[in-house]
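Give me structure tokens for this 362-residue protein.
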Amino acid sequence: MSRGPNAVAVTLSDEGRAELEAMTRSRSLPNFLVRRVRVVLLAAEGKTNIEIGAAVGLSRATVGMWRRRFATRGIAGLYDEQRAGGPRSIDDERIAALVRKTLESKPEGRTHWSCRAIAAETGLSKSTVQRVWRAFGIQPHRQKHFKLSTDPLFVEKVRDIIGLYLNPPDNAMVLCVDEKTQILALDRTQPMLPMGLGYVEGMTHDYVRHGTTTLFAALDIASGRVLTRCTPRHRHQEFLLFLKEIDASVPKELDVHLVVDNYSTHKHQNVRRWLAARPRFHVHYTPTYSSWLNQVEIWFNLITQQAIRRGTFHSVKDLVRKIDLFVSQYNSRSKPFVWSATADSILRKIKRLCQATSGTRH
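Here you go.
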């Protein structure tokens, strides 16, 4: 049968035909690509361009184009080519000026530029400013908070604690210990509106306070399990009771390495005396303003986001009960956190931060 004037012949091997037929059955490929594959299969059967066009809903010229593309480039020819687009209307100098103005200046009486403010200042459109900011990762409306440690033994403490994480000692348990204080038992003044299709969960902006509790936690870095205790207060007496609970929970043949911060409760004279009487306990203090080195802070964030922040509690007992429930469920499927940062990588990052804040970075 004649293929029509100037129609390109299409021949397929058994393997090639099977591949194309599989593509026509795919549920993930776009419809336009499946239709082009059908053009090729029908062409291989000897159909004319007019017949193929009628079968797939394309013009004779379009069918001929995809036949030629497949004959010269194979399956890759059935995909659309990238298009250059229209010429740029904004030159590099104007883009560079926009970036410099955003980074190096502020509008009078304001803390940062907005899209509309800087667009009006530079004569560019708001959408252009947004595209440039997005391309360069500029976000004037956002801030990140930091605090550099002033601890004179910062380097030594970092290497000590990271050494525990990456190379834990033999016959020992490493526990990251801290307390989350002043956890509020908040109860909403009206019932919550449940989440539904098209709208999010709703709650009243006001609440009733029913009291607070303090959550002591010790995270085992090897297993990820957490030992907790809720207390009404967070004095050294409560911390000492928690240490005694740790002592009773850890097998007697194991040493105990505690990673704690510099909170005064952890360094109280009675606490020091109790630790000194138990040589299997070894305390490793994090540098000042460096609680991020303590892995239990990661777990505190998890329980805050998943059980406390959006919770509704009718009393402190209800709050404690729900905390205990979360801990029980968490421990049943716990996994250790993967700590990959080395002491050297942390110190290099701190060095870059110091250079940036002092203006000496080149």
